[in-house]
Amino acid sequence: MAKIPRLTTTLAYDRYMAGKKLVSSVDRPWRHLVLRSYLEPAEQELLEAPGLQDVTLMTLGSGAEHLERNVNGHWESAELRMGDVWYVPPVPVSWRWRSTSDEPLSTVHLHLERSLIDSVADQMELGGSRELSLGDAMQFHDPLIAAMLGALHRAAGDPTDSRLYVDALAHALAAHLLQHYSRGPRVGCLPPHPERLVPRRIRRVTDYIRANLAADLAIGELAAQAGLSNFHFARVFRRETGETPHQFVTRLRLEEAARLLRATDLPVLQIALAVGYENASHFSVQFKRGYGVTPLAYRLRG
Question: What is an example of a Pfam family matching this protein (predicted)?
Answer without folding.
Answer: HTH_18
